[in-house]
Amino acid sequence: MSYTEKPLPRGYNWRSSKWFILSTVAIALFAETFLYGFLVPILGDMLQNRLHVHPSKAQELTSAVLALHGTLAMFSAPIIGYFSDKNQNRKATLLLSLAWCIIGTGIVAGARSVPMLLLGRAMQGIAGSAVWIIGFATVADTINPNHMGFALSTMMSCANTGTIGGPAIAGLLLEVAGYWLTWSVPLVVLTIDFIARMCMIESPATPPSTPDGSLTETAGLLPSREEQQIPSKSRNLWGIILCNGRAMTCLLTIVMGTTMATSFDATLPLHVEERFGWGPSTTGLLFAGLVVPGILIGPVAGCLRDRVGAQIPTVICAIIQATMLGLMGIAGGDIPWASAQNMGKPLYAGCIVAIGTLRPFVTGIAPVELTATTKAMQERSPGIFGPKGGMSRIFSMMDVAASLGMMIGPIIGGSLKEMLGYKYMSWTWSFVYLILAALSVCFLGPQDTEKVPRSRSEEE
């Protein structure tokens, strides 16, 4: 068989480098979360002035538009993960998701009816789910396992930056620049995202070469010797992961961490207004206290996991976070020293900041540990999840877990507050975090590949 030597594409070295691939994924994640939050401060104006929705239906429709994103992500994630693991070229899939997102964003911006608004939002939701799954899978396949914690945590920090930046920029521009100039900002973000994705060249772990040793841009499409030796028989990934105590602890941590965090959306504003008399501006600062520390601390948490493993930081920070949740419940209550007139206000604000600081060490480490667990299974039994591995399906499971938490968080939080009161709602979350700490002690042992426990499904 003869090979035709092909010249390397221009800029191959930097376009296929790890730093550029990570930067491209970071931009994609930022763009997705930026677009998700960008609509929030604009939506009320759109419903009133463009869609002419009756004020009595505005709140219901606002909730439906925002919930649609998470709902579609939860149902589409397994499908996206399955086909992504079957596809050899993740760059093409990322470009397809970007095109889908651009069309959906255009439909949302130009919507003149509620059905068109929902259609555009649905397209954004599916495209966003694809970005999360394929983007994180690309990072997992690119980065050495010893640096996985730092890489994934940094990606998450970039995504959280978009969560904060989207609403802030949209709200400011809508007041000073008008509707269409406001929507030009997402267009700029998507343009930068498009350029980065077009430039990126996927860098396989062991790129094949031409007869003279040079690499080709299409080399990733050719099976390597290692791939040819991978057993053809693969196992059921879903069954193996769901029967593995280590993996299930990670998924449960993601679900409960997201549930607790989103429960604040439904309970915090009304509680601080009733208890402390704080208005929207102070409430906004409290929500910033839940998010901003995680952006700064996230890479540190990931680096700590790479050095000492997941168990120690997760257990310690889960216990401390449970303590903060317990104290937050009594802040501003009947206890004299914690009343609103004494230490209640600084105690509540301090607990909020502490919870935001500790979150990366618990819910932020869980995705990293689940990724490492899956890689350990694949190294121990090559081909167990198919020739291309199962990273996309793993991240689709994480996406479903996070989406489930986003859906049930406000419902459970609001219900607990109504039935038991804010104090007992906080104590309930405190108890949940103590359970997560106990599960971490039992299942998040040494991170070494050889010591990751086998599940019964994996051994069969």
Automatic annotation (TrEMBL):
<feature type="transmembrane region" description="Helical">
    <location>
        <begin position="20"/>
        <end position="44"/>
    </location>
</feature>
<dbReference type="Pfam" id="PF07690">
    <property type="entry name" value="MFS_1"/>
</dbReference>
<keyword id="KW-0472">Membrane</keyword>
<feature type="transmembrane region" description="Helical">
    <location>
        <begin position="347"/>
        <end position="373"/>
    </location>
</feature>
<feature type="domain" description="Major facilitator superfamily (MFS) profile">
    <location>
        <begin position="21"/>
        <end position="449"/>
    </location>
</feature>
<keyword id="KW-0813">Transport</keyword>
<dbReference type="InterPro" id="IPR020846">
    <property type="entry name" value="MFS_dom"/>
</dbReference>
<dbReference type="GO" id="GO:0016020">
    <property type="term" value="C:membrane"/>
</dbReference>
<feature type="transmembrane region" description="Helical">
    <location>
        <begin position="64"/>
        <end position="83"/>
    </location>
</feature>
<feature type="transmembrane region" description="Helical">
    <location>
        <begin position="316"/>
        <end position="335"/>
    </location>
</feature>
<dbReference type="InterPro" id="IPR011701">
    <property type="entry name" value="MFS"/>
</dbReference>
<keyword id="KW-0812">Transmembrane</keyword>
<keyword id="KW-1133">Transmembrane helix</keyword>
<feature type="transmembrane region" description="Helical">
    <location>
        <begin position="176"/>
        <end position="196"/>
    </location>
</feature>
<feature type="transmembrane region" description="Helical">
    <location>
        <begin position="394"/>
        <end position="412"/>
    </location>
</feature>
<dbReference type="GO" id="GO:0022857">
    <property type="term" value="F:transmembrane transporter activity"/>
</dbReference>
<dbReference type="InterPro" id="IPR050930">
    <property type="entry name" value="MFS_Vesicular_Transporter"/>
</dbReference>
<feature type="transmembrane region" description="Helical">
    <location>
        <begin position="284"/>
        <end position="304"/>
    </location>
</feature>
<feature type="transmembrane region" description="Helical">
    <location>
        <begin position="126"/>
        <end position="143"/>
    </location>
</feature>
<feature type="transmembrane region" description="Helical">
    <location>
        <begin position="237"/>
        <end position="264"/>
    </location>
</feature>
<dbReference type="InterPro" id="IPR036259">
    <property type="entry name" value="MFS_trans_sf"/>
</dbReference>
<protein>
    <submittedName>
        <fullName>Major facilitator superfamily domain general substrate transporter</fullName>
    </submittedName>
</protein>
<feature type="transmembrane region" description="Helical">
    <location>
        <begin position="95"/>
        <end position="114"/>
    </location>
</feature>
<feature type="transmembrane region" description="Helical">
    <location>
        <begin position="424"/>
        <end position="446"/>
    </location>
</feature>
